[in-house]
Amino acid sequence: MRWEDLFADLEQQWEALAEGERQAEIAERTRAEFAQLTLVDRLRGSEGQEVRVRTRGGQDVEGRLCRVGADFLLLAPARRECVLPLHAVSAVTGLGDASVPEAAAGTVRARLGLGSVLRRVAADRSQVSLVAADGAVLNGTLQRVGSDFVEMAVHAPGDALEAARSRRLTLVPFAGLEVLRRDTEGSGL
Q1: What is the pLDDT of residues 165-189, one digit of tens each?
Q2: Which of 20, 52, 130, 183 is the most buried (most CB within 10 A)?
Q3: pTM: predicted TM-score of the whole model, two decimal places
């Protein structure tokens, strides 16, 4: 009887040790897998959720995370859309636990960049409010978008006629852009 108790005890110890090793292996694989994720992968996993984004310049933007591109976020606070370049993001609060890698997001969607979004805004002549990296706010209409900059006709909000006549173009490098806001009525990003 004592031998049976001894063997049963050894088997329990062996099973506990094997289970501990299995758990350690799972934890290590989880850490290794997580280490492969990018910022964009993590953000994509929270599309549709309410988040708060803090920019490097101190802007706080809260809203539903609508889209994550290769180098931008699209948030939808009440009646406005906000495009934020990823380089301007310093923190994001409210993310879920999910992640979506590029392969699962689809190649075209995953590679859609800030320039493409800004060209769409320029094409529909939406009036926008652009917050620059230094905190300056420019109101107007995007005119042209280059590979790493945008040209904006600066004018008073609501003054579409002035936008058409404006020769006062302000060039803003993508690196100097923190937040681009526009009203959502009539827009279609």
Answers
A1: 666 789 999 999 999 999 766 444 5
A2: 130
A3: 0.77
Tokens linked to 130:
């652009």
Structural Rg of the chain based on CA atoms? 25
Do 178 and 136 meet the contact criterion of CB atoms below 8 Å apart?
A: no
CATH architecture of 39-183: Roll (2.30)
Measured between alpha carbons, how far apart are the two ends of the chain, in Å?
77
Name the residue among 56, 53, 62, 93 with its Cα closest to residue 80: 62
How far is the C-alpha of 65 from the C-alpha of 77, rounded, in Å?
9
99 three-state secondary structure: coil
Strand pairing of 149-154 and 169-173? antiparallel
Round to whole Å and give the CA distance between 178 and 187. 20
Report the 10 Å Cβ neighbour count for 85. Answer: 23
Among residues 84, 103, 108, 82, which one has the least CA distance to residue 38? 103
Q: What does the DSSP 8-state code read for residue 77? A: -
CA pair distance 94, 46, nearest whole angstrom: 8
> For residues 138 and 112, is the Cβ–Cβ distance under 8 A?
no
